């Protein structure tokens, strides 16, 4: 007569830890991907300064999809500075140092803007914002232009 | 041939009234809808269907086919070919003038049965194919300023959202209250203007379509006497849906683009102007004035001159 032997399945502590780490890693990965996707979907516009060379400051506005229909760009000059030219032409230059552009019927892609400033040293201290209404919902968005 | 030329001037086509009626009924379209698309009266559609006027202008034929969502050829009358002698069809002779093969007449009952069976199968399959519900969703929303100045033009936009598998013909109607006068519209209205104080557009569209008109007011539009409109499509038996959104507007001394009535046009307000109402310059709205107010430090209404004065 053969002797029977019972085998009880066991998981050692080390194995459990590895499984937990794997699950946690996967969950973190999925969460990050979702958050990145949601961030991309929520912000159809981004803008950053490309750099300063001499008296010229250049910036790029990137329009995603779906694109807002229209967009306002505002640049703020430091006290005492003035704008001596821009491409495309600004819609308004105020004595207070606020320069405005209105971009109508925009579509996904890039809008490059360059601005010449006097004195040239002021070009490094220019700041700016973008304003637009969210496509679809119409909620107003304001975005600071990053360096 | 179902197509003919009359005196070398106007192309005419012969339509099959029975087919027209059958197609219209199969698609659940009313004579009124078809008449609207073709731009004729319902009596004319009735005459065409009852074969009392089988030759019609090719231009009308094309519009009729479009309304029925078929090609023109499908509603044309097919002229009957002269029948060939029965012998030439039903039998043939063996080369050399020998014996004749058995006439096809003997197979006729079988052929007729096969033909009838095939027709039945095609009919059943076709019925289910044609009558499958084509899913679509349609809605319309009106955008109107909160206020405007008496006699000064302001825009009204109706945004129609269509979710469908292809373009749909939509009819948008707007009933005009007393004291409202229409200046222009996009799509354009007929040259004789609105009929019976109502605007009506017909357009084939998918996705989003914008219907905009410019109006002036001599009195406020209140809840007792609001704008009232509807949108309908040829599908779903011509069922219409009300246009949602605001339907009243107050007469004030504020510019229509100054929605919060603070005598300035803010960034949000200028963006709303362009986002909601589309290409207003084309419709005769003075967008330069709106932009000048936006860029300035304010404005005021001059009652004597009937103009808005921009504050420096």
Q: What gross morphology of chain B would you assign?
A: elongated
Strand element count of chain A: 9
Task: Label the overall shape of chain A.
Answer: elongated
Look at the helices and sheets of chain B and give the structural class: alpha+beta
Q: What share of residues of chain B is helical?
A: 25-40%
What is the string of SSEs of chain A from the N terminus onward? Answer: HEEEEEEEEE
CATH architecture of the largest domain in chain B: Sandwich
Strand order of the largest sheet of chain A: 5-6-3-8-9
Please give the most extensive interface between any two protein chains, plus how many residues each contributes. Answer: A-B, 16 and 10 residues
- Identify low-pLDDT runs of chain B: 81-101
Mean pLDDT of chain B: 82
Kindly provide the name of the CATH class of the largest domain in chain A: Mainly Beta
Largest sheet of chain B: 4 strands, antiparallel
Number of domains of chain B: 2
Major sheet size, sense and barrel closure of chain A: 5 strands, antiparallel
Averaged pLDDT of chain A, please?
84
Strand content of chain B: 25-35%
Order of helices and strands of chain B: EEHHHEHHHEEEEEEEEEEHHEE
Terminal Cα separation of chain B, in Å? 74 Å
Helical fraction of chain A equals 10-25%
The CATH topology name of the largest domain in chain B reads: Immunoglobulin-like
């Amino acid at each position: 007569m053969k002797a029977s032997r019972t085998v009880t399945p066991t998981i050692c502590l080390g194995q459990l830890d590895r499984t937990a780490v794997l699950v946690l890693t996967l969950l973190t990965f999925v969460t990050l991907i979702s958050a990145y996707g949601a961030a991309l979907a929520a912000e159809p516009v981004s803008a950053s300064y490309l750099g300063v060379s001499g008296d010229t400051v250049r910036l790029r506005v990137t329009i995603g999809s779906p694109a807002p229909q229209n967009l306002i760009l505002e640049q703020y000059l430091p006290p005492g500075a003035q704008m001596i030219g821009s491409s495309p032409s600004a819609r308004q230059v105020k004595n207070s140092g606020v320069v405005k552009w209105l971009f109508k019927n925009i579509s996904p892609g890039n809008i490059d803007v360059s601005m010449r400033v006097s004195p040239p040293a002021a070009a490094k201290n220019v700041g700016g914002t973008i304003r637009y209404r969210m496509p679809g919902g119409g909620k107003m968005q304001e975005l600071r232009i990053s360096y | 041939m179902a197509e003919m030329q009359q005196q070398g001037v106007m192309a005419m086509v012969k339509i099959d009234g029975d087919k027209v009626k059958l197609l219209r009924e199969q698609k659940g379209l009313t004579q009124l809808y078809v008449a609207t698309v073709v731009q004729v009266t319902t009596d004319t559609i009735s005459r065409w269907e009852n074969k009392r006027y089988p030759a019609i202008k090719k231009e009308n034929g094309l519009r009729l086919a479009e309304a029925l969502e078929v090609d023109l050829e499908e509603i044309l009358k097919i002229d009957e070919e002269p029948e060939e002698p029965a012998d030439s069809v039903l039998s043939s002779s063996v080369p050399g003038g020998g014996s004749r093969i058995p006439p096809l007449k003997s197979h006729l009952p079988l052929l007729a049965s096969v033909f009838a069976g095939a027709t039945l199968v095609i009919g059943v399959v076709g019925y289910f194919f044609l009558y499958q519900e084509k899913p679509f969703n349609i809605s319309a929303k009106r955008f109107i300023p909160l206020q405007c100045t008496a006699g000064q033009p302001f825009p009204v936009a109706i945004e129609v959202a269509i979710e469908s598998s292809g373009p749909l013909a939509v009819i948008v109607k707007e009933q005009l209250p007393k004291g409202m006068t229409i200046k222009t519209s996009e799509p354009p209205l007929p040259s004789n203007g609105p009929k019976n104080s109502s605007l009506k557009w017909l357009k084939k569209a998918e996705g989003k379509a914008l219907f905009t008109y410019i109006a002036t007011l001599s009195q406020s539009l209140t809840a007792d006497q609001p704008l009232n409109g509807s949108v309908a499509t040829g599908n779903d038996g011509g069922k219409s849906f009300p246009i949602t959104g605001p339907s009243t507007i107050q007469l004030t001394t504020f510019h229509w683009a100054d929605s919060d009535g603070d005598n300035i046009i803010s960034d949000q307000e200028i963006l709303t102007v362009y986002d909601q109402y589309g290409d207003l310059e084309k419709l005769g709205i003075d967008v330069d004035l709106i932009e000048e107010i936006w860029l300035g430090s304010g404005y005021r209404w001059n009652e004597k001159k009937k103009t808005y004065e921009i504050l420096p």
